[in-house]
Amino acid sequence: MKLKRFLLRYYPPGIILEYEQGGETRSKCIDLLDLRPESDVGELVSEICTREPLVTLSKAEQLAGLIRKLQGKLSESHETQFQLFKEVRTHLLPLTNIAINKSGSCFITGSYDRTCKVWGGESGEELLTLEGHKNVVYTVAFNNPYGDKIATGSFDKTCKLWSAESGTCYHTYRGHTGEIICLTFDPLSTMIASGGIDATARLWSVEHGTELATLAGHSSEVICVHFNNSGSQVASGSFDHTAIIWDTHTGRSVHSLLGHRGEISSVAFDYGGNTVATGSMDKTCKIWDIRSGQLITTLRGHKDEVLDVAFDSTGQQLVTASADGTACVFNTTTLNCVHRLQGHQGEISKVPHTLSHTHCIYYYYYTVHM
Predict the structure, then answer these.
(1) 223/242 Cα distance (integer angstroms)
(2) Where in this chain does the entry annotate a coiled-coil region (predicted)?
C-alpha cells in the first residue's frame, strides 16, 4: 500500500487517506470526532502514526498541520441571524411535510392535494409538480447528499421514486398494506426505507425498483425510520412503545429496544453508529448502545411529548424537540442539559438530523510529498 494524499474533511472532522493498492486507488477515513480546539496535536499525531501503517513519522509534520486546520475551523464563530426571506403559497390543501436538498438550491413539499412540488430555494418559484399518487402525499425525502432523486410516501399505500430534475417517476413501490407515514434514503442512495400503518418497515432498491426486505416485528404503526451512516443498519420506531435495530443485508432484527412508556416519535443514530437515540410521547429521550442493545441513559427535562431527536456530527451533543415548545441540547458525556431553547409559542415538531453546520461536508485536498 502506498499513500497518495490526504483529504481533509472539515465537518464532521476527519482525515481521509487516499492510497494505492494492487493498482487501484482506495480510501479510508480517520474520524476525529473528539477533536477540540484545545486538543494536544502532538499526542494525536503520535497516536495516529502508531495505529495507522499508511501514516509514517515522515508525514507527522504535515499531518499536524492538517489537524491544526481542523482546530481552526472548530474555533470559528458560526452565529447567524435569520429573517423571513420569502413566503411561498404552495398547495390547494394543507402541507404534510417538507424536505430540502443538501445545497439548499431547492426544496420539496407534500400535501393533502395528492401532489409533491419542487421549489427553487432562492426564487421560491415552483419548478415541478409530481403527480401520480391517489391519496395524501404524507412523507417526502431527497437522496442527500446527491439530491438528484426524490422519494414520496402516500396514504395510497405506495412509495414513488422521482427524478429531482425532470420529474420523471422511476419506480412505484407496492407492498405496504396500510398508509405510508415515513421514509428515508440510506446515505449511499441505494435503498429507501419506509414505515407504515401496517406495522412494518420495508426496504426498497433504488436501482431496480424492487422490495429488498419486509421488516416485521412491531405490533403497531411504524412512524419513524433512520439509517446509520454506513447503511448497514436501519432503526424503526413504533406506536407499540419500541424501537428495533435491523440488519439491512439480512432483514433480520438485531435488537429490540424496550423501556419507553409511550409511543416512539423519533429515532436517530449518531454519526459513528455506536449509539441510537429514541424520543417518545412519554416525555423522555433514551440513548442505547448499538452493540449490546442496552439502555445507556434516559434524558429528562421536557414537560410534554418528545417529538424529534438528533445528534450533532460527533455524537457528543443531542437535541430534543418537544410539544412543550422547547428544545433541549444535552451533552451525551455528562448527560446534562447544556442549553434550553425557548421562544416558540407552540410545539416544536422537527430538528435537523445533521445539526448546525454539520449538514455540509467539505473536502480539501492535500498532496503528500514523497
Answers:
(1) 11
(2) none
